[in-house]
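thread: overnight batch results

M.L. [08:02]
morning all. the overnight job finished for the chain we discussed friday. pasting input first so we're all looking at the same thing
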Amino acid sequence: MDINKIVNSASEEEAKSALSYFLQSYMNPAFGALPKNEVELIVLNVLEKLNAIDDAPELYELVSKLKITRSKARRLIYDRELRRSSDDDLNEKVKDLLKRPLIQKNGDLYVLEVENPLVSDHLRSQVKKLGYVSDGSFSPSIVKLGLDAVAALIESYLTEQEQDDIKEALVAAGAPDTSFQGVLKATFKKVACKVASDTGEALMEKASDFISPILDAGIDLVSKRAGELFKDAD
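M.L. [08:03]
and the structure it wrote out:
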């Protein structure tokens, strides 16, 4: 990382703001009183203010730019997100992940790539509270969920009215009239069949076209996508 280039590329306003932030943060509560990990987070935020790193950096960005290990990069991201993100923020990030899963085993297994370790912990906690388990044994950045867990998680993010409206739209399009989770699971099975590749895995972009409207409770788009889905499946 070329610090001179970064500083020279910053505007005068950005440089002043970054310096002011650093000095105020470092001297609170007193000069030199902060532990090393807090100082590292302050410097990380300064680099963000100077546009040297992204506001939500991926692990590799920190590893490559800061010349640190993946474990340290994960800790920095975790500690930083812990100070910045509310439960609502984390829920929104989980919802974004659910919109772009890799679907395996005929729609029974959903694989999510979660670079942010705090989001990963939040996701696993939510799944556990709902009575399901998640598999992260393959990699700390990969979370595997069964179809039942995915349906329950999506249900938890929707109001009762949204659930009723979505269920009505899906049933009208051809889904079996069961519980909300039952309707979701039947729909996602159809999604897996529709967009499955030769290897049995679904392309994330295509799956997202069907899953995103449900998570966003966009009833008109749910009706349109479901109509296409069940019509093609007949």
